[in-house]
Amino acid sequence: MNFxxxxxxxxxxxxESVITMAKIVIPLMVFMEILKDSxxxxxxxxxxxxVANFFDISNVAVFPLxxxxxxxxxxxxxxxxxxxxxNNLSKKDLYxxxxxxxxxxxxxxxxxxxxxxxxNLWFLLSVRVGVAIVISLFASRILKKAEINGYLIKG
Length: 155
Hints:
Pfam family, one: Gate
Strand content: under 5%
Number of domains: 1
Number of helices: 7
Order of helices and strands: HHHHHHH
Transmembrane segments: 12-32, 52-73, 94-115, 121-139
Domain Nucleoside transporter/FeoB GTPase Gate: 18-108
Protein name: Nucleoside recognition
InterPro entries: Gate_dom
């Protein structure tokens, strides 16, 4: 048993994973900056206002929610972190966003993986999204009360 070989293989595997993630996260962040600079992000936010109102979050929280929903937490994390830093999202918005994404992230990728092994597409998709919506609405209401009562301070 060559312990050094295991360490080398582990290091190389980890490095390959980081490089793969960077290949996805960096273009996503560049794409987000292009959308922001060309004012397309503002237009998308206005069109997504019903979603923001439904979850009682700000419009700027909708874009990271959509990115996380489509690409998942790993790949969407860069966009979520950048949005949080640049847009100064409230803690309520950030918590609601993360609660939704914890319950329902990478909808396309994960759902298709389960469908390949025999799961019912529509049942799985509706349960995942439904549970995420119910939990997020419940959390949003609780967080709003906490924010009003001063337990949830912005910053």
